[in-house]
Amino acid sequence: MNYQPKMFTLKEVDTSMISFEARESGGKPQPYVVDEDILIALDVAMATRRPLLIFGDPGTGKSTLARFMAETLDWRYLTTVITSRTRLEQLTGDMDALKRLHHAQAAKVGEEPLPDWTYRVPGVFWWAYNPDSALRHGVELTKYNNLLDKNDTRYQPPHNPGNDAGETNVVLLLDEIDKADPDVPNDLLEPLDRRRFHLFGEEIKAPDHLEMLTIITTNGERELPPAFLRRCVTLHLKAISKDHLVEVARHHYGDVDQDLYESVAIKVMELRDQAKEKDVRPPSTGEFLDSVQACKTLGLTPKSEVWKKVAESTLIKHQLSDNQ
Amino acid sequence: MRLESRNEISLGDLAIAVKRLPTQDRVHLAKIAGCLGFGLEAVVPPKPDRIGERGKEQSLEPERLTDISPAKPQLMPEPKKQRPQVTLPKPPPPEDGYVSRLAPLPRDVVTLPIKIDQAKSLQLDVDTALHSNREPVFAKREERAILSAAVAVRTDAGHVDLKQVIDRLIEQKLVDHLPRQPLPTLKYGVQLLLDHSESMTPFYQDFQILEGNLRKLTSSYRYWSSRFKGTPLTPPRYGKMRHPHKIIRNVPILLVTDFGIGTPLLSRDRAGGREWIAFAKQAASKNCPVVALIPHKARFWPDFARANYLCLHWGRGTTASDLRKVIGIGHCLEGN
Fold it and tell me: The pTM is what?
């Protein structure tokens, strides 16, 4: 790989310092094996300020790339998983009508209801573009402070998924866009394209200085609208190979147990081939790492007798075993 | 960088990327272009291996099924895929062999050229026009949406408006009816009025495409089409029709006209602003919203048209969202 990214700098990760617990607690950056294609696509997306649409098989690291970039860039990280029930309002901002009804029913006689705007629920785009406004439900600071001064126990401020980092740059992950209702990608054109949207009669927009990397992933289960595709920078993540898995393990756990990585990787590739034949979900990179971790911690190898059980609990998960 | 008027990825994005990511490596340049969709590879990758294999080799599917599912008892023998050989008896040869013979024409068949006034008007069949290579005046992908938006009527038949219900409950008002969200419908149909004045001659074929598309969009039962010269109220001076179009109550009108913009001053087809205003009033009295499609740009539209009609440029640049901004979710019919 001789391509050096121009829009960001890759951090050197000391893998020997990363313990499993530290990774899980989010204390240390999580390593990610990037190749030239990934770096170029990221660079192009950041240079053109277009969303990056990532295609790839499950388990190839599409979603992990977003987290890796947030850690590399030291930007806020916002994520949402799209489902068939996701609507644009959930991504921009919605009204919690049921909570309002509940408050009304539970209110004591003569009790003043909370203002309507307190029931506005900011979506991920609102948090990304204008976290301060999202925190105040889109009202002026004085109005919001007046409410806080009342110490009304019924009111709970919204949880900021960006960890109160303020109006800083952001990496936004929209995971599994292909699961969405066919209208959602088209509805997203304006918020993505112009970095603004209209809500409750007001315009919510990102400030010009805000840098943002939007990463959208798809497994290709449903075709995306051409207008949406034509607005995205695209990246196809290659299918997992043995060498790639070994490289990933090396990045995560260092060069110490190279033989272990290779032997587990060979087993994973065998299981992936079997899974394809049986038409079940193949083991992913994350599951490969789990099995390596298990082997390292328990002092096992794929040749040991207990390996079959380890593989069943970390890689196969009863998907292949039922049919074997 | 301002992002006010962004759109689909264009060569401008490629220029920005190349400028901000300076590289001399041709492979890198090709990859940068490829990310933006300028490569030779398809933007959407082929389906994953699993599905690809299935598509490639269809025989894999039954193989997989036999692996997983228990074997089923074979009740019926598999039908043979080969067609049975059928031997048809050969027809007996005619006595005098296969020779064509000219038969005398019956006396009432006239082969003389018909007169000009008896000739049918120069019209293409609707289907012929639809299947011709002529592009519709509106952008192809927008046309259906524009026409739907132009003739849709707003009804209160959508989902229950939960917000309104809760509003009433909170205000301690009685919920005496279930408020519903608005829903556009095409069930009221459309009256299509086509201006056949001299100045609209270049659009005759487009009229036929429009008629075909509108008929598909609504239904034949709720579709009325009429042609006029001057205004829809002007009595026809020639042709079979003797009466102007009779406006049908509560049915949106789609009017395709240039309001005489291109008609010569002394032409018999030219109608003045007063006549057009009279038509607008009559349509309003019948509770019929009118959308006027004008083939000329907005700067040419006469003031009386702007004031009395919902005007829309019949051209490539028009989008359904332009129309929805004005009409909203659909026309509001009184008493609906």
Answer: 0.59
